[in-house]
Amino acid sequence: METSLRQTLYQKSYIILGVDLASNPGLRPHVAPEKRFEHILPSGVRVSVWKGDLANFSAEAVVNAANSQLHHAGGLALALAEAGGPQIQKESDDYVRTSGNVRTGGAVALGAGKLQCKAVIHAVGPQLYSLIHDRTSVFQALFTSVRDCLWNAVSSKHSSIAFPAIGTGNLGFKDTEVAQIMLHAVCDFAKSYPPPLNVHFVIFPSDVDRFKVPTPAEGATVTQMDCSCDTLLTESE
């Protein structure tokens, strides 16, 4: 690899989407997408890491970290809903009204409103702390959610999909766990469904004071995530 994930992820000015966003996403400055890392799996599926904002990121499908009611009231969900306009919440409400809540570990593809993408795939990740005595089931639900997102993209003939780090923040997963599970899901899916498919993981530039990434002395969870990603991608070859 020409660029290590350590250089990509271990910087204080970055935060993985899904942890939190600014309290008023409408006031966030525009972020020009910048590729920081890329790796091609043996199947040909291209995995990349970007500095950017999912609300204006160019991919055919964008994944939203949603709740089962598809009520987009905060975090990434609110940012996408505000950027995409009222159609995002309306289609979500219509779906829940006719089909019911999205199951935990599931995903549903709906319209993109005014976003640049063709579809928003709403993924419902499990809450780790709610099932603390059954971690295996929780991890499997997150794995399934990522696979469902990928399946939604491929079945709709989308050639690219952009993910946040599903499961961090309020859902209680560690960065290392998210990296391992999401990359395992991508690698596993890629064995059955070859390209064309570009899988992007998007990192949002953060306010350093409000969203501080630990330094080595503070635990270096991002460095741990880096090592997990590097190991998994190497093992996939």
From TrEMBL:
> What InterPro entries does the record tag this protein with?
Macro_dom (IPR002589), Macro_dom-like (IPR043472), Mono-ARTD/PARP (IPR052056)
Q: Which GO terms describe its biological process?
A: negative regulation of gene expression; protein poly-ADP-ribosylation
Q: Which UniProt keywords apply?
A: Glycosyltransferase, NAD, Nucleus, Transferase
- Write down the superkingdom of origin: Eukaryota
GO MF annotation list:
NAD+ poly-ADP-ribosyltransferase activity; NAD+-protein mono-ADP-ribosyltransferase activity; transcription corepressor activity
The record's CDD domains line, in alphabetical order, gives: Macro_Af1521_BAL-like
Q: Which residues form the Macro domain?
A: 34-201
Keyword Glycosyltransferase carried by entry? yes
Question: Major location, coarse class?
Answer: nucleus
Indicate where this protein resides in the cell.
Answer: Nucleus
> Gene Ontology cellular component?
cytoplasm; nucleus
What protein name applies here? Macro domain-containing protein
User: What is the originating organism of this protein?
Assistant: Periophthalmus magnuspinnatus
